[in-house]
Amino acid sequence: MKYKIVHIITRLDKGGSSENVLLTVTYFAQKGYRCSLIYGKTVDPPLELIRKAKTAGVEFIPVTSLVRSINPLCDFLAFLRLLRFLRFLRPSIVHTHSSKAGILGRWSTWLSRYLISDIRYPMIVHTPHGHVFYGYYGKMITAIFIMVEKITAMITDKLIALTEGEKNESLAFGVGKSEQWEVIHSGVDFLNSKLKIKNEKLLRELNIPEKAIVIGTVGRLDPVKGYQYFVEAMNIVTSYKLQVTGEIKFLIVGDGEERKSLEFRVSDLGIEDRVIFTGWKDDVEEMISLMDIYVQPSVNEGMGKTLIQAQALGKPIVATNVQGIPSVVEDDITGILVPAKDSQALAEAILRLAQDKELRRKMGEEGKKWVSASGGDGYARFGTERMIYLIEKLYEKLLEGAKVC
Fold it and tell me: Can you give the pTM of this predicted structure?
């Protein structure tokens, strides 16, 4: 018997959470499971992954009222729509993703158990993809989120953390019990992460000199990602007389609500000739391959999929010591970890690597070994195959447990 599996996510974009959800539903659909994906808004969606999922037979169900921001009317309408779909679909497992879809999706699933007269199904799984317990909202709203997450964890069969750091911080905030949590890393396709030399044509297109030291990042340009501190660090770095061959260039790949303010600040600091904003690019690995140093300045980060991609490509890392990042980057071995919101510390770490080619090489090599090493089950520690394998094992265990209830 092949079970019905429903995934619910707030929005489909080019972020790691959407990409991994699409990879997961595609895999299970190809294995013969009946898979549906309920989603809210699409923002620069990963069209190729969506196409593959549809080809595999995944059913896509839009819920326009499922929005990221807090909106009582939309949230209530989304809840009713989710409840209606779940009663019709009668899934065996509902797997929710991110904060908003996680709250509305889990409560509508819990209620649907009673409306379809079967308290065993659907089993409820939730992946927060990082938490919102700091870096997003003020103290009052954050306190409400923590309380709601604590209560909602009580109706959840399994919680999935992307890293040990995320799991430990969630437990420290009182969300869930230790036995509810599983750690399953966000998967990276290492077949696409072979070390590449810098693409000379792409360097010319971006007006980057061949011998320049490129310091870059990839991501959604939102406040929680901390790019405002990266820009301030750029100004500090450019003010130093560096002992390096070639000039320094900064590369920001991605887009989002902060882009205009970041560009304005770069112009205000007078460093626009050093900084390149590219917007979203389809070939992330190609863009990271241009970089000599990869920077992740997040205020809050569940894992940081691009950190894995950068290390797989042999890039040394400068990142903040928050939530899941220390589970991904080994401090002083594969990169340098600094406090969040500290532009000076960020700049000093960048300067250290920029002026030491051998240290960059050594950390890059260690990063490649670290991310591609076995997780103990025959799969690369951070590989897509391992992520799917662990999710499948979790689903099987939940379904087997439900049978004997």
Answer: 0.87
